[in-house]
Amino acid sequence: MTPEVVEPGVKVRLSLVVNGERVETLVDGYKTLLEALREDLQLTGTKHGCELGECGACAVLVDGEPTLSCLLLALECAGRDVVTVEGLVSDGRLHPLQDAFADLGAAQCGYCTPGILVTARALLDREPHPTRERIREALSGNLCRCTGYLQIIEAVEAAAALVPHATRGPAR
């Protein structure tokens, strides 16, 4: 869906599903999805990184696919399903990926972690038992300056072993 041209300073009503809940908000037509999530919906788990689509810190799931929210206009998400790191929690329980990251030291400074978590979630939804090579490939767009990646890969492997295939479904 291509958004229509919006005059500067004009707010547009945006309706979409975020973390399983339908939301409506007024956004400036020039805002990226990243800005709308953080500034208009107060979902600050998604991080500003390079704002050039090179680091992956802003990754969210749009219709189940990892998407760099800094490169997507919020209006392009009208009617779509968006999952942020906040949406990985279910019934007050952390997703097994979040538990594994904490247990295995895969999150150090934590800035890259939200983007890596949602990207890994999409991988596990598609491939319940990915190889190390597939994990590396899936996370190749997510940069981390702290861990050296081994703990991240091990955490994704550990989470894959913990998430029963029957409970997997498309990303909300």
Describe the structure.
This protein folds into 2 domains: 11-86, Beta-grasp domain (Ubiquitin-like (UB roll)), CATH 3.10.20.30; 88-163, [2Fe-2S]-binding domain (DNA polymerase, domain 1, Orthogonal Bundle). It is built from 5 helices and 5 strands, in the order ββαβββαααα. The protein has helices spanning 33-40, 96-103, 113-126, 132-138, 150-162, and strands at residues 11-18, 21-28, 59-62, 65-68, 81-83. A 5-stranded mixed beta sheet has the order 2-1-5-3-4, sandwiched between helices. Helix 2 (96-103) crosses helix 5. Residues 166-172 have low confidence and may be disordered.
Task: Give me some keywords for this one.
172 residues; Ubiquitin-like (UB roll); DNA polymerase, domain 1; 2 domains; 5-stranded mixed sheet; 5 helices; 5 strands; disordered C terminus
β-strand number: 5
Strand content: 15-25%
Major β-sheet annotation:
5 strands, mixed
Helix and strand element order: EEHEEEHHHH
Structural class: alpha+beta
How many domains?
2
Count, helices: 5
| Shape assignment | globular
CATH topology tier name of the largest domain: Ubiquitin-like (UB roll)
Helical percentage = 25-40%
Compile the SSE list and pairings.
Layout lengths: L10 E8 L2 E8 L4 H8 L18 E4 L2 E4 L12 E3 L12 H8 L9 H14 L5 H7 L11 H13 L10
Parallel strand pairs: 1-5
Antiparallel strand pairs: 1-2, 3-4, 3-5
